[in-house]
Amino acid sequence: MQFGIFTVGDVTTDPTTGEAPSEYERIKAMVRIALKAEEVGLDVFATGEHHNPPFVPSSPTTMLGYIAARTSKIILSTSTTLITTNDPVKIAEDFAMLQHLADGRVDLMMGRGNTGPVYPWFGQDIRQGIPLAIENYHLLHRLWREDVVSWSGKFRTPLQEFTSTPRPLDGVPPFVWHGSIRSPEIAEQAAYYGDGFFANHIFWPKEHFQALINLYRERYEHYGHGKADQAIVGLGGQVFLRPKSQDAVREFRPYFDNAPVYGHGPSLEEFTEQTPLTVGSPQEVIDKTLTFREHFGDYQRQLFLMDHAGLPLKTVLEQLDLLGEHVIPVLRKELDSLRPAHVPEAPTHASLSSGVTV
Q: How large is the C-alpha radius of gyration of the chain?
């Protein structure tokens, strides 16, 4: 079981001080958070990709390459790589380069993002979002597995005997997760290739994501990659921790109430009841996270969102200390003990190179 954090890289005003970090401060904070994640024993750090304010991570591989040089163990990933508006050739080459620099500690999550205007900025039509995702990934999949590719499609110029460089490290492409919050077509795509499926599992009730994950599992088995319960599933989640529950609720409430993504809607209490958000003590986070397995089956990766809504860096680092010391060791022990022997662990470069997992 892999545990980690993901960031969307938002620059948000702290509602308790009225101050917002500069882009420079936010970028540096994200790096510090990644280093802290490795320090406290997490397995994964993932960054989003955005090309509009108030977000800063427009170049994930640049950031992850810098973090790779300052870490030695943590897997570096994305919480969205825009398969619809990035050129598949550039994705193939950028992430293969990152693979080499990070000694294989790289995977990525494909997604369409949640910013409609990004499509025309990169010369695409949002109405073609699903066809773009399907065609672009088909090309990317080939570029990593075939030394010479000739290809033609609808959305980019043809390729004639093209070789992307560098080739994937050890001839093993980075493992791909397909992320979705609403599209069964993406669950189908993940199943077709035998890739991982990541349900963001943040803003909506569990029943919505159960339908997507069940579809993915059924189709994974249909395409012959293994039994449905052997499919590679990842989940998101949100937590805010303090040693005492009442302190966590009191401290987080102004951030929740003013957050651009969910403020001014349901109350904090309603949101924690209806979604995976947990605001409380380490034991409360443990208890709620353990219910995810009951809802979705055995899964391989759990990522938490912790550095959002204007929370200051100091608070985020304190959260990571609590997560690493009091939460993850218990979750790791419990979930690993419950996972049947035939259900695979999360793929890594080492396991894929040796053929141990999918």
A: 20
Domain ranges of the chain: 2-354
Q: 């380069």: which residue's tokens?
A: 97
CB 92 within 8 A of CB 144: yes
d(CA 286, CA 269): 18
**How many Å apart are CA 28 and CA 40, to the nearest integer?**
19
Going by C-alpha positions, the residue among 325, 308, 175 that lies closest to residue 236 is: 308
Query: 234-260: string of b/e by CB count within 10 Å (b at 16+)?
Result: bbbbbbbbbeebeebbebbbebbebbe
- What Å distances lie between residue 323 and 76, 282, 305, 330, 340, CA to CA? 19, 7, 12, 10, 25
Within 8 A by CB and 6+ apart from 192, the residues are: 219, 223
For the 2-354 domain, the top CATH level (class) is alpha beta
Q: CA-CA distance, 176 to 145, in Å (whole number)?
A: 13
Express each pLDDT in 150-192 by its tens digit. Answer: 999 999 999 999 999 999 999 999 999 999 877 899 999 999 9
4-18 pLDDT, tens digit per residue, is: 999 999 999 999 999
Whether the Cβ atoms of residue 184 and residue 215 lie closer than 8 Å to each other: yes
Listed residue (231, 140, 139) closest to 191, CA to CA: 231
Let me know: does 72 contact 37? Beta carbons within 8 Å.
no
Task: Please give the Cα distance from 125 to 146 (Å, whole number).
Answer: 29
Give the whole-angstrom CA distance, residue 52 versus residue 118. Answer: 8
pTM of the model: 0.95
Which residues are CB-neighbours of 320 under 8 A, at least 6 positions away? 5, 33, 36, 37, 40, 42, 306
Q: How far are the Cα atoms of 57, 107, 113, 142, 186 from residue 87, in angstroms, in the given order?
A: 17, 18, 15, 14, 18
The identity of residue 294, as a single letter, is E
